[in-house]
Write a structure and sequence with these properties.
single chain; 2 domains; alpha+beta; globular; 310 residues; 29% helix
């Protein structure tokens, strides 16, 4: 069976009501599903005429697995007509949906555990998922503040703890070396660090080692271990030490992205929790149960690494 490469991502529900501890996303889902029994009742009609339907919801461990689909009733699909190979031009056409079905615009698979949300979507953004959940709660007429939340990226988890548990695959450093930054570093009597040294070497190659122009020099450095050589364990240890140093350096203005072996991306202001997986394909989407399995596995990885702790 053909497989599709999909990204599974993590968000956390952040509550904006007067008492954020009085509810969680999983609780709201359970109450809303109890009030709305059928798929027809669980259908949200968006302003653009698109129908988003909660077509499946199942309890799993201490959370819930969900499948949302999106379609626009009566909308045709674009098609590429079959023509002889000698044709020098083909006009794209349309095809009407079957009489008993609609063409799917996209779908989203979710695993929700309290306020933790792992999702995998095709054609639906996380902002759309948030909006649909909010409308679902309004439609179910549960507590009035159930729609007062946002789905947030994580900014406050312990980054060093995540590095220690998952290891470091790659470090990307970016910096701009200009007259102002060089003068500032000289006043502090501090070296310009790894990026400054790299910039100096580039300028030496260009024959302008000590020149810093007003338009600056943009430097990007990628550091990762070479698995083809001996000493890989030592290299990975040094990579982890460097990553920890980059995170703990509060004075640097450099941008950085640290990619863990688990596929999580750590930046200066947040951790972007996501991973790439291969899932059995069904048309433009993927097989539901396989997607749910990957979502739950992703959640367990984050939980065991301590990445979900605040």
């Amino acid at each position: 069976m053909a497989k599709r490469e999909k990204t599974v991502s993590y968000r956390r529900a952040g509550w904006l009501n007067d008492d954020p501890t009085s509810l969680n996303l999983g609780m709201c889902l359970k109450q809303a599903a109890d009030n709305l029994k059928t798929v027809d009742e669980r259908t949200i009609i968006r302003a653009n005429g698109q129908y988003v339907r909660l077509v499946s919801m199942k309890p799993s461990k201490s959370g819930y697995l969900l499948h949302f689909t999106a379609d626009t009733p009566g909308e045709a699909a674009s098609i590429v007509p079959k023509k002889a190979i000698v044709a020098d031009e083909i006009q794209v056409g349309t095809a009407a949906p079957p009489a008993d079905a609609e063409f799917m615009d996209g779908d989203a698979f979710l695993y929700v555990n309290h306020n933790d949300v792992c999702f995998c979507a095709t054609g639906l953004r996380d902002s759309t998922i948030r909006h649909v959940l909010q409308e679902f709660f309004r439609l179910a007429r549960i507590r009035k503040d159930a729609d007062q939340f946002d789905l947030l990226k994580i900014a406050d988890v312990n980054k060093v703890k995540l590095l220690q548990s998952q290891g470091v695959a790659e470090i990307e450093l970016r910096s701009t070396l200009s007259v102002a930054t060089v003068s500032y570093n000289r006043r502090k009597l501090q070296p310009q660090g790894i990026l400054g040294a790299a910039a100096k070497q580039v300028k030496a190659i260009l024959g302008k080692e000590h020149d810093v122009t007003s338009d600056a020099l943009r430097v990007m450095l990628t550091i990762k271990s070479d698995k083809r050589r001996l000493g890989i364990a030592l290299g990975e240890k040094r990579l982890k030490t460097l990553a920890t140093s980059v995170i703990n350096d509060q004075e640097t203005d450099d941008e950085y992205v640290i990619i863990t072996k688990g596929g999580q991306r750590i930046g200066p202001n947040e951790i972007l929790m996501r991973s790439t997986v291969m899932i059995d394909a069904i048309g433009k989407s993927v097989q539901r149960d396989k997607a749910w399995k990957e979502l739950y596995s992703f959640y367990e990885t984050l939980e065991s690494s301590g990445a979900l702790e605040q």
